[in-house]
Amino acid sequence: MLSYQHEYHAGNHADVLKHSVLALLIRALQRKPKPMRVLDTHAGSGTYDLGSPEAQRGREFERGIARVLEERPVPPELAAYIQIVDACNRGDALETYPGSPRIARALLRETDRLELFELHPKAHAALESAFRRDRQVHVHRRDGFEGVLAVVPPPERRGLVLIDPSYETDDDFARVLDVVPALHRRWTNGVIAVWYPLLRRPQAAAFARRLCALDLPRFYRVELEVEPAGGFGLLGSGLAIANLPYGVDAELETLLPWLHRRLAVDGAGGFRARWLTAP
Ligand SMILES: C[S@@+](CC[C@H](N)C(=O)[O-])C[C@H]1O[C@@H](n2cnc3c(N)ncnc32)[C@H](O)[C@@H]1O
To answer: Cα(142) to centroid of ligand 1, in Å?
Structure first.
């Protein structure tokens, strides 16, 4: 079932957390000159028109990226990500939002590579058209869970897998719990970043507990909750990251309070950034 369309949610608080962490991870991997590869298992369309009927329906970006852009300068930990958002837009207008493929692509060095997996025909076509002539990017129309296992470890042996399913079906929760240990067995030093939703549903909390209980090296968790506890829908989100690159923990500890201050609705929710296994 492929009913999910990220167009409705582009630039929301969950995107802000996910994409700022993605940029920090890529930047940290690039502290060494050796080439690296980013693999995005659920890539989406790549770029989002915030004026589209889908984005305009809930205007979720107004409580996400728009609130971040209201305060300049942004903290240094956000600079690379915000530079990419700014580059998609003219002047102060916020009309376009870059998805994870655009953000990763903007950060690649000449020797780095990006692999994108996307199953939705429309989103896949958008990626194909954006990256057709780009020799550093490979777009797969393939199941991301199964596809990524077939291509790791990459030839560079350094890099990052972003796992960002929609969790619309229970299957996604189970598949994440299967794919993460399998990925780690195949590529022991690969960075694995899993995005997950914070919802009222007990199943979502049980999933986060099981994910964070996996026995993985340098395993770190960030969570940002911004909606009032009585609310429905997405209260916030988190990422569990294995093989967290050195230095990113300190950056996240600085970034999370700032993001919470900007994004929390009347100060609701909270944040955490902490090691799950000894660094
Ligand atoms: C949350 S969105 C991705 C957003 C994107 N990562 C970003 O941050 O801009 C999830 C995407 O996964 C796609 N998808 C769903 N199941 C998939 C699967 N098994 N393999 C690959 N893509 C899938 C959906 O069509 C949707 O575009």
So the answer is: 11
Strands 220-225 and 236-242: antiparallel
178 is catalytic: no
Contact 39, 151 (CB under 8 A): yes
pTM for the whole structure: 0.98
Task: Please state the rounded mean pLDDT for residues 20-32.
Answer: 98
What is each CA distance from 35 to 113, 115, 203, in whole angstroms?
Answer: 8, 14, 39
pLDDT for 1 equals 61
Q: What's the pLDDT band for 278 if we cut at 50, 70, 90?
A: confident
| Ligand 1 centroid – CA 171 distance (Å) | 14
pLDDT in the model for residue 245: 98
Residues contacting 271, CB < 8 A, separation 6+: 222, 223, 224, 225, 256, 257, 259, 260
Query: Mean pLDDT over residues 182-202, rounded?
Result: 96
Q: Is 123 in the pocket of ligand 1 (CB under 6 A)?
A: yes
Which of these is catalytic: 164, 215, 249, 266?
Answer: 164
CA of 118 relative to ligand 1 center, distance in Å: 6
Shortest-distance Cα residue to atom 9 of ligand 1:
99
Residue in 72, 75, 66, 71 with CA at minimum distance from that of residue 94 = 66
Domain ranges of the chain: 6-275
Confidence of residue 3 (pLDDT cuts 50, 70, 90): confident
Element (H, E) at 104: helix 100-107
Model pLDDT, residue 201? 86
DSSP letter string, 79-91: HHHHHHHHHTSST
Task: Report yes or no: 246 and 27 within 8 Å, Cβ to Cβ.
Answer: no
Average pLDDT of every residue of the chain: 96
Instruction: Indicate the fold that domain 6-275 takes in CATH.
Output: Rossmann fold (3.40.50)
